[in-house]
Recover the amino acids of this structure.
């Protein structure tokens, strides 16, 4: 009996405490996408998007928990309720909007074409009949597939595509420009270069997908994103993670 | 030839080979085959979107899967023959080299070997992705094949060797004309089994961005979000292929044992 009373008291104490009432949101992230989200030398998930959501959580009053998840199947996991939301450089597209609800955009990107230093290609049209790689299910890969005469090759992780480009198995890679810059200007700076920005005619922005019908959650995240932008925290983060 | 000489070796993790004696219409194999066939045909008819789309998206993946499987198994048989002979060789150096190869390869997971040959050795030797995949699969399966071939050769009674040597054949001739022609009957069924196991394991090369059945399916699912439907179809296609192959191997096995009984 005493135990039950104690337990009830403990429960009451926990739920009454405002610090505990703070909502925890579990975000899935494919931490293979530097500098947006990646695993650092200390095995921690870090990056622009991670800092951004942490700041958003501070502003809107939620505790973000980041769960490192493989990109392939990340949307299936959201549908299955394995986490609450995804913060993994997910570009907002009409197809994706049909399957999930998106938060307000938090970052704008363009698709960059990366080639070997000695390559003269400056567009996908220059790469007819050649193999071009991208990460499976990303807007970069869709752009390659849409290009006529180019052999699209999909990879599990963008790093694997970059390595294949580095050793010359493929002719080019297409991915989001901050990621492209990270690989072409830092990791493979002796060998690779960004040769062009692919004009799709559409503005491409990252959003946070949540399961359809999670309006409350979406509102909370949106409030955080708006506050971070209003305070100019995003500009500081850009300086920290991306440079210019 | 007496019944005693008919020996079977069980190696690998291929599909269950249906027993050639099982003539009944209602067997696990038949139920699985008919069930799979019905689903593969009915699903696209009943629900063309997405099942028919998936079915149209995958065929070049099936081609790649078979291409990788057949090239790998041929290379693996060559490697396996050399390894198997090396393992029973009386030359200590050759014996040691073959044994070392088997030990090393069997101790490393296939997935790690694939990554190693593709990405690690890829820095030194630049080969196309399919070649890297085939080499990796063949190096791995060559070790298992070596054990199959060694066991097949060992299953031939030593009296055969003695008789052959006493008739004036040298060791090489004994192996080529007496032992191997008899051993291959014991070896072939497990090789068929390895073939099925290898076909299934080629799904691992999808990780190297080789466009096999699984990679094609993953690409479809990633774009359409039809995870359930896509992976159901992928599983059914693999099942259909392995069911048909296992029956073919069963028939082959039956023919071989029939030949031996006479």
């Amino acid at each position: 009996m005493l135990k039950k009373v104690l337990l009830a008291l403990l429960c009451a104490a926990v739920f009454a405490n405002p610090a505990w009432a703070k909502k925890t949101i579990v975000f899935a992230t494919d931490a293979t996408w530097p500098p947006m989200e990646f695993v650092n030398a200390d095995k921690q998930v870090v990056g622009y998007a991670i800092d951004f959501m942490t700041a958003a959580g501070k502003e809107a009053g939620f505790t973000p928990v980041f769960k490192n998840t493989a990109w392939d199947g990340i949307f299936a996991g959201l549908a299955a309720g394995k986490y609450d939301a995804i913060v993994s450089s997910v570009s907002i597209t009409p197809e994706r909007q049909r399957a999930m609800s998106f938060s307000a955009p938090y970052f704008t990107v363009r698709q960059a074409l990366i080639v070997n230093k000695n390559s003269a290609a400056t567009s996908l049209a220059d790469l007819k009949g050649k193999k071009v790689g991208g990460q499976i299910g990303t807007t970069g890969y869709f752009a390659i597939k849409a290009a006529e005469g180019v052999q699209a090759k999909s990879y599990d992780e963008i790093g694997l595509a970059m390595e294949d480009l580095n050793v010359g198995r493929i002719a080019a890679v297409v991915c989001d420009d901050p990621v492209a810059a990270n690989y072409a200007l830092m990791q493979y700076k002796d060998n690779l270069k960004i040769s062009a920005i692919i004009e799709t005619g559409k503005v491409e922005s990252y959003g946070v997908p949540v399961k359809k019908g999670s309006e409350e959650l979406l509102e909370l995240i949106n409030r955080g994103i708006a506050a971070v932008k209003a305070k100019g925290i995003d500009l500081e983060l850009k300086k920290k993670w991306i440079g210019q | 030839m007496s019944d005693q000489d008919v020996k079977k070796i069980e190696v690998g993790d291929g599909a269950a080979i249906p027993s050639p004696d099982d003539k009944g219409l209602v067997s696990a194999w038949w139920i699985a085959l008919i069930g799979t066939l019905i689903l593969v045909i009915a699903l696209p008819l009943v629900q063309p979107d997405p099942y028919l789309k998936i079915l149209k998206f995958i065929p070049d993946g099936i081609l790649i899967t078979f291409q990788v499987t057949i090239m790998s198994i041929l290379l693996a048989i060559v490697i396996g023959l050399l390894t198997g002979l090396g393992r029973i060789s009386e030359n200590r150096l050759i014996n040691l080299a073959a044994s070392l190869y088997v030990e090393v390869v069997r101790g490393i997971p296939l997935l790690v070997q694939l990554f190693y040959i593709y990405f690690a050795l890829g820095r030194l030797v630049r080969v196309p992705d399919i070649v890297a995949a085939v080499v990796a699969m063949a190096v791995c399966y060559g070790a298992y094949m070596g054990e199959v071939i060694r066991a097949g050769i060992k299953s031939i009674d030593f009296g055969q060797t003695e008789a052959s040597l006493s008739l004036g054949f040298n060791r090489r001739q004994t192996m080529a004309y007496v032992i191997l022609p008899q051993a291959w009957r014991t070896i072939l069924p497990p090789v068929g089994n390895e073939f099925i196991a290898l076909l299934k394991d080629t799904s691992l090369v999808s990780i190297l961005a080789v466009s096999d059945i699984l990679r094609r399916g993953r690409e479809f699912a990633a774009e359409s979000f039809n995870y359930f439907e896509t992976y159901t179809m992928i599983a059914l296609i693999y099942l259909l292929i392995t069911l048909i192959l296992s029956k073919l191997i069963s028939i082959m096995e039956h023919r071989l044992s029939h030949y031996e009984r006479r």
Notes: Chain B has one domain: 62-257.
